[in-house]
């Protein structure tokens, strides 16, 4: 910006635009506009979420930014002193976009009301969706522009099978079709094995 002493350049390493410029320098597809960076949310020094999009269905926008064996994104992570970077696919479908933004958490359902979104997750995914000190859901909200509320879906309890008096009697007595299996064993022992006559044929 202009000052009385002439132009002055302000450089910030915490601004989200820095991440965008680093990807433009590192990723050819971003520089030439083939892959578009739609949105970035960042907590400098800790974590960044970035949504990318490509009109060509044959091009993997996320893969282009990550690079072969993660070489491209790892180069930028090193430049940012180990800051974690999550790259997701942008979508014009709000529900799908919010699901992606909350990754790596697995989302069951998304209900949207205006610019508010209720996201339902299972108990084992709740802490992942929220993130450490709320970081994951906070960055997802900034990325998508929605106020995201995480709701827990309780696991369904299995109904206990009702046991009738007759079933209980059978389990105690061991009755089978009205006949105690012990008596069947006794009867089977009484039956002698049939005798077979062997004939020897001589020439």
Outline the structure in words.
With 203 residues, the chain is α/β, with parallel strands linked by helices. 37% of the residues lie in helices and 22% in strands. The chain has 9 helices and 8 strands. The chain has a 3-stranded mixed beta sheet, sandwiched between helices. The chain has a 3-stranded mixed beta sheet with strand order 6-7-8. Strand 3 and strand 4 form a beta hairpin.
Q: How large is the share of residues in beta strands?
A: 15-25%
Shape: elongated
Strands in their spatial order, largest beta sheet: 3-4-5
Annotation field: number of helices: 9
The tally of beta strands, per DSSP, is 8
Main beta sheet, described? 3 strands, mixed
Structural class: alpha/beta
